[in-house]
Amino acid sequence: MDPVDAQANLRHLLNEWDPLGVADVVADEYDCMIAPLLSKLAAGGGRAEIGEFLWHELGDHIGLSHPERYGTDPMADRLVAWWAAVSRND
């Protein structure tokens, strides 16, 4: 997958998840997660690593308490499945 397409697709997935509820107003709110996620996924990061990253981003970077309430594990599953599908097509 073209890197630009991968970034756009990942932005779309993160905005659908939208733990802050702001994606309709600020389309680039989660862009800080795109490069690290793509790096982790490309390096073979699985559900645990991706989920831990999302947890850290929501809790430490964004400042949300109780990141588990925002579905970090299901989102990690979704991202890993997405990456497996798009990288299989390359």
What features would you describe in this structure?
The protein is mainly alpha-helical and 90 residues long. It is built from four helices and no strands. The protein is globular, with a radius of gyration of 12 Å. It comes from Actinorhabdospora filicis.
Short summary:
By secondary structure, the chain is mainly alpha-helical. It is built from four helices and no strands.
Annotation keywords:
single chain, 90 residues, mainly alpha, 4 helices, 62% helix, DUF1871 family protein
Percentage of residues assigned to helices: 55-70%
**SS content category:** mainly alpha
Shape: globular
Total strands: the figure is: 0
Q: Rg to the nearest angstrom?
A: 12 Å
Number of helices: 4
The run of helices and strands is HHHH
Report the end-to-end length measured between terminal Cα atoms.
6 Å
Mean pLDDT equals 91
Per DSSP, what share of the residues sits in E-state strands of 2 or more residues?
A: under 5%
Topology:
Blueprint lengths: L2 H15 L16 H9 L4 H15 L10 H17 L2
Organism: Actinorhabdospora filicis
Protein name: DUF1871 family protein
